[in-house]
Specification:
By secondary structure, the chain is α/β, with parallel strands linked by helices. It has 2 domains: 2-172 and 306-326, Vaccinia Virus protein VP39 (Rossmann fold, 3-Layer(aba) Sandwich), CATH 3.40.50.150; 175-303, DNA Methylase, Chain A, domain 2. Helix content is 31%, strand content 14%. Helix 2 (31-40) links the parallel strand 2 (23-28) and strand 3. Helix 5 (158-166) packs across helix 12. The longest helix is centred in the last third of the chain and has 20 residues, at 307-326. The protein is globular and about 65 Å long.
Length: 328
């Protein structure tokens, strides 16, 4: 069964479906991400989704992770919603569903997104629809991130998908256990690469405990005012993601711009490497980000769905569709 993956990114959602045995084709506007997708997941079409005629695809399943920036809490309020140029792109999912008539539609989006408008359109197209807020930590990813997952089935019961998914719950490992075997000094091999931090900021890093950002450590009184005053005096105004050190155990924040905001290693006084962030988001080491520079690779990983979750979602959907096919 062909899976059509819209707004595919580097393929966190699509990779899970490929791992579950589906043939996957992605549509991604950024040619560098599309190249990474083709390298790791399946055929990739580098194009703006709005320009693609889907009527000839014949997809059995349509999956999509529309741009989150119009609805993300990390986006300034004055740019959210209709004020954002990417607002409303989820309507392209409904258009693709109308043109391809898949058996199932799956959409992933941030918590501030409202699933009701898209669900209403899909119901008018003949689908049964259910949307639930899902915590990725319940499925083996050590992250605080939660997402809407919308499932629409033609002739089936979406609640069955979420029941099947719930049966595959898995406790997440400690973040440190996922990355402790990688070299202390990134050597560039297998995407274990970083950017250097300028010296003025470097002296602050040892002061930030695991699980804290510069701002939260400053507010908690863990950073003395005498340390790098020109940075610390402004620390209380910094975003809680800036200079954020991943916890040794427990769940981590996913920093929207991990390279620019400088997501830090739990123990070592440096940034996370691309491979370390990929492991924390449950990507296998076989997944290559080589077509991307460090900045874009880390942002693409942070924006994506953890493959461990998407593979479980794909299996749950396959079981539900299989049941529907056996018992029409």
């Amino acid at each position: 069964m062909l899976v059509l993956d819209l707004f595919a990114g580097v393929g966190g959602l699509g990779y899970g479906f490929r791992s579950a045995g589906f043939e996957v084709v992605g549509v991604e506007v950024d040619p560098r991400k599309a190249e990474a997708y083709a390298l790791n997941v399946g055929k990739s079409i580098s194009a703006d989704v709005r320009s693609v005629d889907f009527s000839g695809f014949g997809a059995g399943i349509l999956i999509a992770g529309p741009p989150c920036r119009p609805y993300s809490a990390a986006t300034p309020k004055w740019r959210r919603g209709p004020l954002h140029p990417e607002y409303g792109l989820d309507a392209e999912v409904a258009r693709a569903a109308e043109e391809t008539k898949p058996a199932a539609v799956v959409v992933e989006e941030v918590p501030l997104w409202r699933p009701a408008p898209l669900a209403g359109v899909l119901r008018r197209l003949g689908y049964s629809v259910r949307a639930e807020a899902v915590a990725f930590s319940k499925f083996g990813a050590p992250t605080l991130r939660k997402r809407w997952v919308l499932v629409a089935l033609r002739g089936g019961r979406p609640a069955r998908v979420f029941r099947e998914l719930g049966e595959m719950a898995e406790a997440p490992p400690r973040p440190i256990d996922l990355i402790s075997d990688l070299p202390r000094e990134p050597d560039g091999a297998n995407d274990h690469r970083i950017c250097q931090i300028r010296s003025g900021i470097r002296e602050l890093i040892p002061l930030i405990p695991p699980g804290h950002s510069l701002a939260s450590a400053y507010r908690a009184g863990l950073i003395p005012r005498g340390a790098a005053v020109k940075y610390v005096e402004d620390a209380g105004k910094k975003h809680s993601y800036w200079l954020y050190r991943v916890p040794i155990e427990g769940l981590m924040k996913v920093v929207p711009h991990p390279r620019r905001s400088m997501a830090l290693h739990p123990i070592y006084d440096r940034m996370l490497s691309v491979r370390e962030l990929a492991r924390l988001m449950t990507y296998p080491d076989s997944f290559s980000f080589r077509p991307l520079g460090v900045d874009l690779a880390m942002r693409a990983i942070a924006e994506s769905v953890p493959p461990k979750f998407s593979s479980k979602l794909a299996l749950a959907l396959a079981r539900a569709i299989g049941s529907t096919c056996r018992n029409p």
